[in-house]
Amino acid sequence: MNWLVQHKLGTPLSPELSINLYSCQFCYLMLLLFKTYQTLSVMFIGVVTGEMFRNMQNSEIIRKMTEEFDEDSGDYPLTMAGPQWKKFKSSFCEFIGVLVRQCQYSIIYDEYMMDTVISLLTGLSDSQVRAFRHTSTLAGQYLCCFVNLNFVLISPNTAITPKIDMLHLWSHMLQENQDEIENMMNAIFKGVFVHRYRDAIAEIRAICIEEIGVWMKMYSDAFLNDSYLKYVGWTMHDKQGEVRLKCLTALQGLYHNRELNAKLELFTSRFKDRIVSMTLDKEYDVAVQAIKLLTLVLHSSDEVLTAEDCESVYHLVYSAHRPVAVAAGEFLFKKLFSHRDPEDDSMPKRRGRQSVNANLIKTAVFFFLESELHEHAAYLVDSMWDCAAEILKDWECMISLLLDEPLPGEEALTDRQETALIEIMLCTIRQAAECHPPVGRGTGKRVLTAKEKKTQLDDRTRMTELFAIALPALLAKYSVDAEKVTNLLQLPQFFDLEIYTTGRLEKHLDSLLRQIREIVEKHTDTDVLEACSKTYHALCNEEFTIFNRVDIARSQLLDEQVDKFNRLLEDFLQEGEDPDEDDAYQVLSTLKRITAFHNAHDLSKWDLFTSNYKLLNTGIENGDMPEQIVIHALQCTHYVILWSLAKVSEGTSKKEDMLTLRKQMRAFCLMCQRYLTSVNTAVKEQAFTILCDLLLIFSHQIISGGREALEPLVYTPEASLQSDLLNFILDHVFIDQDEDSNNGQQDDEASKIEALHKRRNLLAAYCKLIIYNVVEMNTGADIFKQYMRYYNDYGDIIKETMSKTRQIDKIQCAKTLILSLQQLFNEMLSDLGPSFDRSSSAFCGIKELARRFSLTFGLDQLKTREAIAMLHKDGIEFAFKEPNPQGEGHPPLNLAFLDILSEFSSKLMRQDKRTVHMYLERFMTFQMALQREDCWLPLISYRNSLQAGGDDDTMSVVSGISSRGSSVRSKKAKPATGKRKLPEGKTSNVTEVWMNREQSMQTPIMMPSPHLTSTIMREPKRLRPEESYMGVRRGTGLMEDDEEPIVEDVMMSSEGRIEDLNEGMDFDTMDIDLPPSKNRRERSELKPDFFDPASIMDESVRSTHFLGYDAFQR
């Protein structure tokens, strides 16, 4: 091996060794070249034999590989899945690196092997076969990279001999090798890259951009110039996010090296605007990398990005997507917070408002105020938490900025700035204590590491020690400012309360309790009072020794407030005297305080029900009770009922307590019902909301989960109450925006959103009553008929309600849908008269609504078979219900309804179309069948819809029931599992039942619906005799042309898929990246799912006997 070492070092060899060396090199070269061909052929799923290698040119090899390639499969190693192919790409790239390293000293420069390989790769990269282009492009780019890398690595280590002449010789050889490598790379670039960076396949384009980025970074002298950079800039406009992402990551490697910044100036000025626009890319990963690239650009030079460029990134700190927000937070920190005076680092560390962080905290406040998104301080804090936690957790400095006097020459914070600082301070404390992103950003709480848990514990300890002392002073200074006090009062919720005892801070706790008491007595704002209530609730924790101290203070406060309320109420309700405004204000203020505390604290021992009920009853009788007093009295009484229920549910109360609760609950429901007729809209809305909550809580679901002892509390609303609730919805929800404008209310966008949000909550509350079977399902007809008219405002709620009701009872849901169409048809007749134009907008609107309803039944006709049959039955009866007063020769008044009913004909199975057609003929006379006038067109079109596809309906069974004799259905249909065939003799009996109209009534055989928690103790509702029916037609079989027996239908279980389809005309929605405002956020929380499926459906699978459509009985 000495000769090989000498050759590598440049030492002259003897002639014999030279001959042996070159012969070995040639053999080794041929072996490597053949192995390379074989490896590439494996990649392309082709075979290159030794004979092909010796006797065929590259073009002939490529042609033969193309002919042998299986284009039908479309799979090749780079795209195959599975454990054996998981690391194939990295292994193949490693093979290329090994090949170059083995040839790095001489073979790579012999102008044969590399030329041959590059020629092969260039030819393959121009192939029309995707596998060849993809693999050759990958191989070519990595080959160029490894050739350059190995040349760079070996060149400094070669000049190891002291001989001058050998140094000159070696320098000349290095220059020749460098030229050879540059020629190779240029050949690969022009032969592969230039053609493939625009390839139709995104993966190939991504490979090209990724590797040229590596070339420019590793071999910047040759490749880092505008001639190559332009390809990256152009590709940043690629349609695929994967390719745009590779462009950004390639540029990040260049901008990270400051030595290369000078060569990037022209590129930066040319493509800077494109990079800035990519921060709003629809692909979040691309947006994140674009922001990180701008941060590197900013790091290289502050003058490159303009103020407008920076502002386009600043607002992304409020993005709902956390990686985007965090990247924007790093950019913001780099731009505004990382500049410090050199003198600050040399001076001793100061604390408070004299610390280095003081100016940075002020900068954060100024930025927050200028962004004008004052409801989203938590988003700003979370965005900067990873990069600026040291500044954000400098609570000592924040306290000093709020409490200490400004230094000489220092400008004090304004009131608005102090409010913003307190809000930011609260958000930082919440972030440190909870260690998870705010609501709306992130998927939820994550498991903390041991280090994070320790940091969290240390932060809670430090914040408690600081604010336990400072909070009373802060409350005393800002006690009259409701907004500041509300935020400050939330701080104790994140304290480690044990510190009050271990740190001997009891006197500061007493000071805090005194300040809270004074705030309760000063304020009547609901937010402030609720914050005080929550603070007492957080401090009254029995696990800590401070409980007794806080409980005594709370009891004293409530005793005073309740005594004051009873005293004021007695004077306020005295007969013969008109209450003045001062008395009303005192009663309202005290009632607000009591209501706010009753929300979080049990005040049952003060018997607030009697006084509040007396107040409400007086308001009903006199009718002059102030609006706010009634609203808070209703809310307070509601809390009384709920706390009593909680006490009874624990099982420790007496039987008398349950009877008292039952009596109070029913009396209160009656009182709320009476207030539904109030003249004041706010009072009616409050009464309606409370009624819906109580009816849902005290429905049959109250006894679920082993709480049968609470059965006496079950309350079923009477028909009058159900009617009042429905009328309220129709009068106050389904109204135009202009009608809802209150007197004196500013008609701006914010007020409209708030009003719509309120109406959506009201509608959702009532829809819950429908799906939990608290009110009759047919009351939903008045809701469903508004689906089209109010689609933009309530379409999601109504559609979800239809979906849930269908899961509960398909037949009753279908009857409700057809009832809603019938109601609209009757309303149209009353407005337009019997001789209306069927092309009118009103009639077309009803027909479009029917089409929408039809789409919600899905494609599985077997699952909806009985429901669709019931729907057609009700529709036919309605169409012929009202005869024409002019005589039998004229069409019935409702005949045009058949045109609407025809929208559901496509949902009928083949045999059912004939059955429905027979049922239709029952109502038709011989003369009707002969009529061809325009007024009879609905009947004609409906008959045609029932006859269409009757002979060749291949879609009649979607779920795949086996057909033993039917030649029409698909032979590939598999036998349905879980379905039971009826005896053969059953068909004729069912046919007779269907055909004989004069026979006795028979109720369809049905299994009960899946139990709701709210209806588990109810008996299944049976159809009234007038609601059940049988179809008749003598002498004809129900399924005369079908040899397949009738089967049962297994209904969908709670874990089954929802069969509703997305309707074709649903509007596309756009995701808003910025977090919504308070109103919009609440609306978005309401929208996704109003009802919990787990509480609606149990795990049982319900089945409905399907006896040849006994649903058509009469």
Automatic annotation (TrEMBL):
Q: Where in the cell is it found?
A: Nucleus; Chromosome; Chromosome, Centromere
Which residues are in the SCD domain?
Answer: 193-278
Q: What is its main location?
A: nucleus
- Protein purpose: Component of cohesin complex, a complex required for the cohesion of sister chromatids after DNA replication. The cohesin complex apparently forms a large proteinaceous ring within which sister chromatids can be trapped. At anaphase, the complex is cleaved and dissociates from chromatin, allowing sister chromatids to segregate.
**Protein family according to the UniProt entry:** Belongs to the SCC3 family.
Q: How does the record describe its quaternary structure?
A: Part of the cohesin complex which is composed of a heterodimer between a SMC1 protein (SMC1A or SMC1B) and SMC3, which are attached via their hinge domain, and RAD21 which link them at their heads, and one STAG protein.
What is the name listed in the Swiss-Prot or TrEMBL entry for this protein? Cohesin subunit SA
From which organism does this entry originate?
Cyprinus carpio (Common carp)
